[in-house]
Amino acid sequence: MEMRAVVLEGPGEPEEMRVRRVAVPEVRHGWVRVKVEAFGLNRSEYHLRAGLATNARFPVIPGIEATGTVDLAPGGEFEPGQQVVAMMGGMGREYDGGYAEYTVVPASSVIPVKTDLDWATLGALPEMLQTAHGSLHTGLAIEPGQTLLIRGGTSSVGVAAAAIAKEHGLTVFSTTRNPQRTKVLEDLGVDYPIVDDGNVAAKVREIVPGGVNAALELIGTNVLPDTLNATAVHGTVCFTGMLSDNWTIPDFYPIGYLPNGVRLTAYGGESSDLPAEAFQRYVDLVANGKLPIRVDRVFTMEQIGEAHRIMQDGAAVGKLVVKVN
């Protein structure tokens, strides 16, 4: 039996991506075959396709997440036809991922869900919510009443983080480089949209002179010093994203780099960091209109090159999703 899939033979441009027909993957005990209905696009897949990933192997079907129904679970962990999402755990790197009509993943990477949300909306949620939830709760240990700065607020994780933080009772500052996008941030519930001109710390401290309690860095090391300077003494910055593709700090000297008393942590977790109960709660909040998650655009599989170009160029506000059928 064959299926449609996007197969990367090696690094290349977005326009080189094509849908091919390949064999439906076999499934063994402890793994689950998922019939994919939709999948979200993620920055790490751009890194893989562009040849920036250090742990890449080719050929490979990319995709670190997928949403659909269980086709087969030899170990009995899930029932055929059950709604599920799958993410992380080596998907799209160590083994073939979600850019396909079927994907086979470890049972530990699968989370059951029950919802009437359409597949495109549900397909936007897994990795976006997992990264935002983990960054806020594991990386920053947020508490109600705190102030939070999100650096890179119109990214999919930035949008999700703002929604989760507001639902948790925080005051949210969020940045965009495009002045025309501040209204979008306001509509998503952000308290203080900030145009990022490279000097965000000064703008934040005009509003909260002591700095914010917590900051989520999604841009990269090129702006990290400014984000640290926007953060209060005993506050925490969590380094999660690298939208600028700046990943490392050359000649890192902690005493010269870190402001006095400001903590720097990082988050790069797995699906296990988002318990099934928490994921279901978020899905229910989205379905009830109480967690404003933004899907920027929905594509077909045949439009995967166009979708990757938009992701690479940073032209989306929120999540890009591919609906498989």
TrEMBL record:
A GO MF term: NADPH binding
InterPro entries according to UniProt: ADH-like_N, ER, GroES-like_sf, NAD(P)-bd_dom_sf
Keyword tags: NADP, Oxidoreductase
Residue ranges the record marks as coiled coil: none
Secretion signal, residue range per the UniProt entry: none
Gene3D superfamilies assigned to the protein according to its UniProt record, in alphabetical order: Medium-chain alcohol dehydrogenases, catalytic domain (3.90.180.10), NAD(P)-binding Rossmann-like Domain (3.40.50.720)
Boundaries of every Enoyl reductase (ER) domain copy: 12-322
Pfam families on file: ADH_N (PF08240), ADH_zinc_N_2 (PF13602)
Name of the featured protein: NADPH:quinone reductase-like Zn-dependent oxidoreductase
Species per Swiss-Prot/TrEMBL record: Kribbella steppae
